[in-house]
């Protein structure tokens, strides 16, 4: 389960595509919990849009996805982060590679490109378990000239799909992204294991490690 | 107290544990870094300290292993809010590496394989506060956690504990490192919640 929350903030966000905000929840007795979420859309003054996936047994995400109601107040700080960002003045090709909810900051980049009328050529490779778990499905299906989208299904491939379900491979990265001699900037976001393996593939394919930016989430052993 | 979030109760995990402000308890070991994980064979690895006068001190992997090793059990605190208690490391104290090095420097810039940098006051690397760590939980440190060796400075936010550490540059004047130039705090004390520049 996931939900997109549109928060009205006083005198804040806007920000760059790829940045995060910190959300603070406060219980009646003063207990607080802080979490960081990527902005799903940048550049909107007084608004912050995040997409949250509920983690089973989580303390904050199930509340934000299932329980929170319109009108509830929380604190938002940010935007934060100046590295995993795409700026409209960037003209080089861009490869975006998302694992699961890692698509959120990359969607912000696609939306920022569109909002700026940028001609920078974008390619998105989006790895999801199944079609049902795709975030922003209808928006990503709309034609967006200069943005190529390829979807990798890891558990369940849609009927008639030429690619069987399975984890992302070097071939997926090679076919769905820009070749290294185009010197693209590559943004990779997802769970740790996903980002580790995709970043290794990009380097093995010949991409300059300095052009590969990563954002990882989730615990690992 | 801040704005009350109606309906939010929280879980209060680890309520009897004293964590720095704003931190929550994590039992896994999250990985955070700005780019791909450098794959460095120990045979190709070396650690250097360069002084403000340009003097170079260098240890190969084998030479580092021959130095007195320490087992360190410490709590670590990441600026992204997780804290991990009782993490167990093996490494060489910076006191050992800095002994016999003649310097008037007050600051250090840490350089990593892959180009990452972070800055610290030199005093924070002395007196049993910092190590070049190559073991975690009685095993070699894995590449995604900074292996073959990383800096370990547990009293500061964990981005100061640079992964894939390559060189310590001793400086008489402070300069900002990678995250510090990207808006993070120059010092990074978790107990004073120095997360971002201006905190």
What does this structure look like?
The complex is a heterodimer of chains A (221) and B (199). By secondary structure, chain A is α/β, with parallel strands linked by helices. Chain A is built from five helices and ten strands; from the N terminus they run ββββαββαβαβαβαβ. Chain A has a five-stranded antiparallel β-sheet with strand order 1-4-3-2-5. Chain A has a five-stranded parallel β-sheet with strand order 8-7-6-9-10, sandwiched between helices. The relative contact order of chain A is 0.16. With 199 residues, chain B is mainly beta. Chain B has helices at residues 61-65, 94-98, 178-181, and strands spanning 24-25, 46-50, 56-60, 70-77, 82-93, 107-112, 117-121, 131-136, 139-140, 150-152, 165-171. Chain B starts with 23 loop residues before the first strand and ends in an 18-residue tail after the last helix. Chain B is 7% helix and 31% strand. In chain B, strands 1, 4, 5, 8, 9 and 10 form a six-stranded mixed β-sheet that branches. Chain B contains three helices and eleven strands. Classes of the chains: A alpha/beta (221), B mainly beta (199). Chain A binds chain B through residues 24-28, 30-36, 59, 63, 67-69, 72-75, 80-84, 192, 195-196, 199-200, 202-203, 209-210, 212-214, 216-221, and chain B through 1-13, 22, 24, 26-39, 80-81, 114-115, 144, 178-179, 182-183, 196.
């Amino acid at each position: 389960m996931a939900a997109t929350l549109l928060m009205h903030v006083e005198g804040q966000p806007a920000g760059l595509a790829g940045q995060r905000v910190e959300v603070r929840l406060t219980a009646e007795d003063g207990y607080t919990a802080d979490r960081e979420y990527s902005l799903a859309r940048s550049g909107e003054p007084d608004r912050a849009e995040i997409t949250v996936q509920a983690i089973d047994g989580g303390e904050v995400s199930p509340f934000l996805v299932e329980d929170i109601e319109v009108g509830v107040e929380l604190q938002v700080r940010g935007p934060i982060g100046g590295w995993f960002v795409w700026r409209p003045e960037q003209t080089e090709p861009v490869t975006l590679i998302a694992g699961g909810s890692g698509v959120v900051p990359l969607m912000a980049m696609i939306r920022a490109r569109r909002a700026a009328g940028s001609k920078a050529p974008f390619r998105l490779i989006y790895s999801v378990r199944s079609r049902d778990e795709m975030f922003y499905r209808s928006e990503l299906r709309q034609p967006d000239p200069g943005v190529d989208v390829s979807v990798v299904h890891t558990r369940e491939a849609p009927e008639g799909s030429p690619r069987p379900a399975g984890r992302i491979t070097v071939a997926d990265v090679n076919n769905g992204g820009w070749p290294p001699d185009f010197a693209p900037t590559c943004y990779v976001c997802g769970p740790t294991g996903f980002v580790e393996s995709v970043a290794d593939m990009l380097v093995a394919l010949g991409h300059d490690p300095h052009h590969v930016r990563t954002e990882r989430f989730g615990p690992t052993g | 107290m801040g704005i009350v979030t109606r309906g939010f109760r929280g879980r209060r995990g680890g309520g009897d544990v004293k964590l720095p402000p704003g931190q929550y308890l994590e039992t896994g070991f999250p990985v955070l870094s700005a780019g791909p994980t450098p794959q460095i064979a120990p045979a190709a690895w070396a650690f250097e300290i360069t002084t403000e006068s340009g003097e170079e001190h260098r240890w190969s992997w084998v030479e580092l292993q021959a130095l007195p090793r320490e087992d360190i059990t410490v709590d670590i605190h990441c600026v992204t809010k997780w804290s991990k208690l009782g993490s167990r490391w093996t490494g060489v104290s910076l006191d050992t590496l800095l002994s016999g090095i003649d310097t008037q420097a007050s600051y250090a810039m840490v350089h990593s394989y892959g180009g990452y940098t972070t800055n610290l006051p030199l005093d924070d690397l002395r007196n049993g506060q910092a190590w070049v760590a190559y073991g975690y939980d009685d095993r070699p440190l894995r590449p995604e956690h900074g292996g073959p060796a990383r800096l370990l400075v547990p009293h500061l936010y964990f981005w100061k504990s640079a992964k894939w550490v390559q060189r310590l540059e001793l400086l008489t004047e402070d300069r900002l490192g990678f995250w510090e130039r990207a808006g993070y705090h120059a010092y990074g004390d978790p107990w004073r919640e120095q997360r971002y520049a201006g905190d």
